[in-house]
Please model this.
Amino acid sequence: MKHKDPHKLKSTALLVFCILLSLPTFSQHFDWAKSYSGYSRSDYPYNHIVGSVTDSHGNLYVAGQFGKGATIDGQDLLPFTPYGSQCNTTLNAAIVKFSPDGQIMWKKVLHANQGFPCTIDEIHLVGDTALYVESLVDIIPTGNDAYLYFYDTLITSDDTSFMIAADSLGSGVATAFSIMDLDGNFLEHHFLQIAWIDSNGAVITMDRSGGINPESTSRIDNQAFPGGPFGVDSDGNIYIGQVPTDIIALLDGWYSIENGKLSGVLIMVDGHSRFTFYPENRPSVSNYRILKFSPHFDNLIQYQYVFADTPFWDDDVPTAGRLLMDSDNNIYLCQTVYNDIRRGSGRVSLNGASDMAFEGKEATMGFIIKYNSHLEPQYIRQIDYQNTSNNGYYNYYFHDMAIDEDSNSVFVIATVANDVPTDSMYVDGVQLDANNNALFLRFDKNTGRYLSHGIVPTNKYSNFYGTIHNTDVVCKNNRVFALPTFQNNIQWQNNEINIEQYKWGKGLFIWDYAGNPIQYIDFNSISIQSEPGTALALHDSVLYICGYSRSSMTVADTTLNPSGNTLAYILKYVDTSFMTPYVYTGPRDTGDVRIKVVEDGNAFVAYPNPFRQRVNIGIENGDLRIENGVAKAWLTDMQGRREEVRLTPAGNGKYTLDLTSRPQATYLLTLTTATGKTHTFRLLKQSDIFSR
Model:
C-alpha cells in the first residue's frame, strides 16, 4: 500500500484554502426590519429618521420624528402622560436604542402638548461613552396644564428650572443640547437662545413691518438658537455651523432700527452664560458662521463667518448643511447655495483666506470647505460647469459627507441636474461623466484634490435629496454606501433596472472608492413620492439602513406598509465581506484580469490576476519615474511571512515582479511609494495547468 506524503497533503490543503480565500465566498442577508407610522398631516411626513449611530458593541441608536399613535415592535413611542392623553397631532421626537438582535433596550421621547412641535436635528456618538443630541423645544411650559416630556423627564409650568434659568430673557423657544450616557441617562443638558443688541448694548425687539412695536405678535423677539450641524473635538469643544437668523432677518436693509443698525448678537446658555459678539462683516442678505464653544458651553471660544464679502444669492438657505470632524480636529463644512438665476454670479472670498473663494454661477451650487481647529480655512471645493445655453436651469447640490481615515479621503454626496445635456461639469479641473445624476465625489482629505467619483446612471433623474432630510453616506474598506432614488431606469453592472415612467425607485447603492459599481439592493418602493434613505450606520459586517417612505416597501421577504402618509423604517443588513477590503477586478483589452487601487490621482494596477509566473505592476494616469514612483515592495504569504521583493522597471511607471519560484498560494503585495503611501493587492498564483 502506498502512503501519501503528509507534506504534499498540507500543501494541497493550503492551496485549496488560498483559492477559496480568493473567491467571493461571503454571506449577505437582512436580519430584521422595524418600522413605525403614526398620524401625519397630509402635506408633511411626520414619521422619518433623522440620524443613527452605533457603539463598539454593535448597538444601534436611532433618532427620529413621529406622529400620533406611532408604535414600534408593539410599543407606543409615547407613553400616556399624567394628564391622560397619549399624544396629540403635533410633531414629536424620540431616540430608540436597539440591541444587535433588534430588541428595544430603551427609548426616550421629546413631546409638548398644546400643539407645539418638538424635533431632533442631529445625533452623535462621542468616545463610545456619550450621545450628543441637538433638538428644538418649541415651547417652555408657561400656562395651565402645559407640559413638556423632555426625553421622558416631565416638566410643567410649576417648575421649568430643569430647562432654563429664571433670569432668562424670555421666549418659550430654545435649542437643546443634551448629553446622555449609553443607557439614556442625562450627563448634562444645555438650552441655548439668541437675542440681538443695538450699538448701545440694549436688547432689541422689533416689529417685522419695520418699526419698534413690542405689542405686535409678529415682532422679532428672543428665540431658539439657530441650531445647525455640530461636531465635538478630542478636547470636548463643540463646533456648531449655522445660517444665522440675525444676518438673514435684520441686516438685509428690509427693516430699520431707531438710533442705528443692529450691532451685535447675544447668545444665552441656560439663561446664565451670555456671550456677546459684534460681527466685523455683515453681509446684506445671508452668510454662514461656525461657533466654537468650550466643553459644557462655559465659554464661546471663537466664531467665524464663512464668507468675507457680501454674498450674491438670495436668502433661501434653510440649513447650514453638514459639519464633520476628522481625527486631527479639522472641520469640514458642506452646503448648497440656493441662487436666484436673476441675481447673476460672482466671486466671494472666504474669511481668513482672501486667495480662497466661492465661484458663483447662475445656478444652485454646492461647496465643501475644510478648516483647522482654529477655524482657519484650508481649501474650498465645488462643482463647476460650462453651459451651452443661457436659458438652462442648473442644480449642483452637496448634501452630506463621510471621512475615511485609512484612505485619507473625504466623500461628498452630490446631485447634478442640467437642462442642457451637452453641458460639461468639472471638479478641480477634472471633467465628470455625470449629468442629471446622483453621485459621490472623493477628495484627498489633506489637500482637497479630486480623486474619483461614482454615479447612479439613469436616463431621467436620480436624487439624494429628500423632503425632510438629506441622505447619509458611509464608507469603509473600499466601499461607498448611499441611498438615492431614481427615475425611469438605471444601467448598473451591465444590467438595466426599469420602473414605470414618472415614478421613482429606491434602493441601496454600493461602489468602490474608484467609482466602480459593486452592488444594488432594490427596496421595491415605487411611487410618485419615493424618498431617499436618510441615515446609515456601519459596524463591522453590519449596515443599518434608516429612512422614510410614502409608499410600501419590500426588503427581502418583509413588506413594510405606512399607515398615514409616511413610513419610517430601520433595517439591519449583514454582509460578511464588509470586514475585508474590496478589490476591483476588471477586464483589460488583452483579456488579462487586473486589480486596481486609486490613490493620489493615480491608478495602481496589478495584472494578470490570477497569475502563473510574473505580475505586471502599472501606474496609470501618471507620469512617474522609478525614483518617485514605487520605492519598496513587500510580499506577504497567508502564514504572515513578509519579505521585501524587487520590482523590475519596465518603462515609464511600469514594473514587473517575477514570482516563478514561489509556491502556488495567495499573497498580499504591498507597494510603498516615495511619498510614504502604501497600496496592497491580493494576488493568486496558479499552476501552469490552470487555464486562463
Notes: The chain has a mean pLDDT of 76. Residues 47-158 form one domain. The two ends are 37 Å apart (CA to CA). Residues 248 and 622 are 47 Å apart (CA to CA).
